[in-house]
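ugh ok fine here u go
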Amino acid sequence: MSYLQKKVDRLFAAWDKKNSPGCALGIIRYGKFLYARGYGMANLEHSVPITPDSVFDVASTSKQFVAACVAILARRKKLNLDDEIHKHLVEMPKYRYPVTIRHLIHHTSGVRDYLTLMDLAGLRYENEYSDEEITGLIARQKRLNFRPGSAYLYSNSGYLLLGEIVKRVSGLTLRQFAHQQLFAPLGMSSTHFHDDFTEIVKNRAAGYAAGKDGPRISISIFDVVGDGGLNTTLNDLLLWDRNFYANCLGGFGGKLIEELTTPGRLNSGKELNYAFGLFTEPYRGLKTVHHGGSWLGYRCELVRFPEQKFSVICLSNTEAMNAISLARGVADLYLTEEFTQPKTQAAYGPGRASTGKIKCKTGIYLNPKTGVTAVLSNKGGYKLELSGNTHQLNRVSAVSLREKNGAVQLDLEGEAKFTYSPRGGQKAVYSWLPTYNITAARSRRLAGNYYCDELNTSYGITAKGKTLKLNRKGAPEETLVPLKKDLFKAGPYITLRFKAGSFSLVAGRVKNIRFSKR
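structure:
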């Protein structure tokens, strides 16, 4: 075992146990494994260890495969990337502005995220739903988050709809088409889109979540595919990674790979860092192409450094693992002589704590453009809560905070404003909100039952003195925190704005859902 391999093993030592889930790790250079092994167990009930042949759900890492299917259909003139989606999905509304296939690919469509919609409608991810039920939920949305092409906002709906377009244009299921056009030609014999939850999959790793007394099973019978749902192995992903240097798919040569790795653009001409199901952005001065995944008990990251012909794949079966951070930790070891930026100066690189104090107000912050709120606290260290996610932040300069894994950075503008910069997303400015109070009379006027036809669900709002409570299906009762006149925060990621017997709701990847009082 080499010195570097020993250092890698120390990175993953916490998972290298017989009583713990873990991951399959692959380190690739010039199309071959430098190191490939499993840490921890694929199945704790039957004491099955993880190996390079263990099958994992790779969640959103699936998106690049769907995008490749769409690109192949486009190159065969079966569709055009600038087709309006209504041409292939007739059940979708005719929006005021056209939504194209290209918009779906680059997350610039404005189509609301269906996973967020499910949560708002009280639909559990762990349950079974048909393709028609989920596409129907998306099609019920009368409005978009924004004008197509004007902004970037990651939306799982886009890739679910792309999978449906592949099905309708090709006459095959996404699983069949991907097998025929991608997996079979590359020899990826253990890879498939898992569109039947009852199917037995040999060597599959079970997903786990942390429980009070140890790991608990965390899996789903949700088998709608497109935005996720790919089951694959470390050994198969080696073949996929190798193809990016010498494409053998479709007879298109390097042109297909060039298309898959070319970032999209907004209507303004601004280049994004999202291509065909792949993020394209630098890490410590080197180009990368990557995508991660997170779904129940599974975490995944596939990061490629194309100019170094170096890749790291981390497939995990525990929600407790940060696959993105660990994959970059491996790259830090192997490419240490090739990086042009140290860790502390890398664009969205790992945030290492520096000494000194930083001046900023804690409490609730608001993005006035979107209505999204964030909570910044400092109890033993800075923590940002935003859109249902929690980010532990380190001070990296007198005016900057950064998450240790490099996923998020805050740049302070005085004590009451910061610019939020997520890796792979757009920057946004948030301003601190002072405490705001409402009267008991105002609380009583806002209380009542509100219905949303786009979600086909009702929310109940009750008043007790000055306090308002929100009750919705599938969620515990939430206190409505007043932010300013007629604007309230509920739970980790919902904002309500009341107006004339109704309210509009913002929740992460869903904007301006309307509820009317009944």
